[in-house]
Amino acid sequence: MGTPLEHKIIQIIAGRGPAECCWVVAQVLKIFLQELRQQEYEYIILQQEKGIENRTLQSVTIKINVNQMQHFLDQWLGSIQWQGASAFRKHHKRKNWFIGMYEIQQIKLLELQEKEISFQTMKSSGPGGQHVNKVNSAVRATYQPTGDQVVIMDSRSQHQNRKIAIQRLKEKVNQNQLENIKKSLTYQWENHLTIQRGNPIRTFKGTDFKKQYKKLSYTSKPQQLKGALRNELKKAGL
């Protein structure tokens, strides 16, 4: 059997940008999917949120099933710039539009293991008469990795309470994990609403969206680096 493929969740988002940014999201999605197919990466589009204008997208979320693709993603993740005139507001002076592409950090659900549950017995309280209070039939169950606890005194049988405690502890742990995932996704979404302007990982120009280059940054050996910069620009057709 081969090694199972890992997956990454990628989101392309216009943030709080106007219709022009939503148009850029749709165009970038086409190119990104084309490159995924060229690399033979398997993907599924999980979600698309349409923009106000036709053929625009506020955001799109993609699941990519592949191992060892970080180098590919490093060429995409970050802010993406498009330089061009608005097709929605012909007299608008703005020529630079930014969107973002981010990896959604996933929280893995823990699979509760019964061997990681600790149990403590105690006397039951409440209705049931003196017999209930004289025996340690109640059970406190604690899931050690998360610290979640439940106390069960439903039955006079300690064994039965133990079984109930395991089931309710599983439900509690799963519910808390789902809440944490929701909070994490909300936090990431809010952070991504404000797209960073400047220092884009990729820049596209014109309505054909075909001219592109990766922003370069050099800090030493001026002459050698100027030559490298010229070569890079030639490759990009600039």
DSSP strand (E) fraction?
Answer: 25-35%
Number of strands: 10
What is the CA-based Rg, rounded?
27 Å
- Unreliable stretches, pLDDT < 50, 5 or more residues? 128-132, 215-221
How does the helix and strand content classify structurally?
alpha+beta
Q: What is the chain-wise order of helices and strands?
A: EHEEHEEEHEEHEEH
Please state the second-level CATH architecture of the largest domain: 2-Layer Sandwich
Question: How much helicity do the residues have?
Answer: 25-40%
| Global mean pLDDT | 80
Short description:
With 238 residues, the chain is an alpha+beta fold. It is built from five helices and ten strands. The chain starts with 6 loop residues before the first strand and ends with a helix.
Considering the chains and any ligands shown, give keywords for the structure:
238 residues, Alpha-Beta Plaits, 10 strands, 34% helix, elongated
Could you walk me through the main structural features you see in this protein, from its secondary elements to its overall organization?
The chain is of the alpha+beta class and 238 residues long. It folds into two domains: 7-108 and 193-235, Alpha-Beta Plaits, CATH 3.30.70; 114-185, Double Stranded RNA Binding Domain (2-Layer Sandwich). 34% of the residues lie in helices and 27% in strands. It has five helices and ten strands; from the N terminus they run βαββαβββαββαββα. A seven-stranded mixed sheet has the order 2-3-1-5-4-9-10, sandwiched between helices. The chain has a three-stranded antiparallel sheet with strand order 6-7-8, covered by helices on one side.
